[in-house]
Write a structure and sequence with these properties.
Layout: H1 4-9, H2 14-19, H3 24-33, H4 45-56, E1 62-66, E2 72-76, H5 79-97, H6 99-113
Antiparallel strand pairs: 1-2
Length: about 120
């Protein structure tokens, strides 16, 4: 599992981080921004769990998003952003709620047509 630093910089290595001109001081500065400056980035992860779990219970005030291409965005989680995320969550929940019915209908159509689908599931 490694240290917190290993987890934060993954998939990069410490050498990759150094090649980019970043140091542990840079990581510690980020932890300071998000009020986790009391955590030792060199300590193994299991030893970090207790202080971190206590900190997680606090209300989230910032949002860190990764774009999947090596970039990231860190911003304050204000009421407008929180509302936008809540609305997105509700839309996803509504879409996912319809999946069992859609799967059942797909199975029905496959039976009628005598076809298979790569998405067809075994009916109980």
């Amino acid at each position: 599992m490694g240290s917190l630093r290993d987890q934060v910089i993954y998939p990069d290595s410490v050498e990759d981080m150094a090649a980019r001109g970043l140091t542990d001081k840079d990581l510690e500065a980020i932890l300071d921004i998000v009020n986790l400056n009391h955590i030792n980035i060199h300590m193994p992860i299991p030893e970090q769990v207790q202080p971190l779990s206590l900190h997680i219970r606090k209300y989230h005030t910032h949002l860190l998003q990764f774009n999947g291409e090596g970039g990231w965005r860190f911003e304050q989680l204000d009421s407008a952003t929180r509302l936008s995320l809540a609305e997105e969550k509700q839309r996803l929940e509504a879409q996912l709620a319809g999946i069992p019915e859609m799967q059942s209908r797909l199975n029905e159509l496959c039976k009628i047509l005598g076809d298979d689908s790569v998405l067809k599931t075994v009916e109980e």
